Amino acid sequence: MRDKDIITIESGKRGGKPCTRGMRITVHDVFSYLAAGMTEMQILEDFPYLAAEDIQACYAFAADRERQSALVHSETSV
């Protein structure tokens, strides 16, 4: 499954933030847990409805956002 199939954005859910598979867990939530020191395994244990592919999709989504941001930044600084 590609991250675009897993990460969903719905205007009425969590303020339109990117979520995993239409659930209420956002990409930001996943990275907040990781930044706080949780391992992927701990996240999966605490949220059994998440799958390892969901966390991987969060990484891919964030990487793509960073790439897009870098492209916009380089275009505006020309």
Describe this structure in words.
This protein is mainly α and 78 residues long. The longest helix has 25 residues. Strands 1-2 form a two-stranded antiparallel ribbon. The chain is globular. The protein has one domain: Arc Repressor Mutant, subunit A. The model has no long low-confidence stretch (mean pLDDT 89). The chain is built from 4 helices and 2 strands, in the order αββααα.
Total strand segments: 2
Largest sheet: 2 strands, antiparallel
Number of individual domains: 1
**Strand order of the biggest β-sheet:** 1-2
Q: Report the uncertain regions.
A: none
CATH superfamily: Winged helix-like DNA-binding domain superfamily/Winged helix DNA-binding domain
Strand content: 5-15%
Shape: globular
CATH class: Mainly Alpha
Task: Provide the CATH topology.
Answer: Arc Repressor Mutant, subunit A
* Computed CA radius of gyration, to the nearest angstrom: 14 Å
CATH-defined architecture = Orthogonal Bundle
Tally of helical runs = 4
Give the topology string: H per helix, E per strand: HEEHHH
The helical percent reads 55-70%
How would you classify the helix and strand content by structural class? mainly alpha
Please, what is the average pLDDT?
A: 89
How far is it from the N-terminal to the C-terminal residue, by CA? Answer: 37 Å
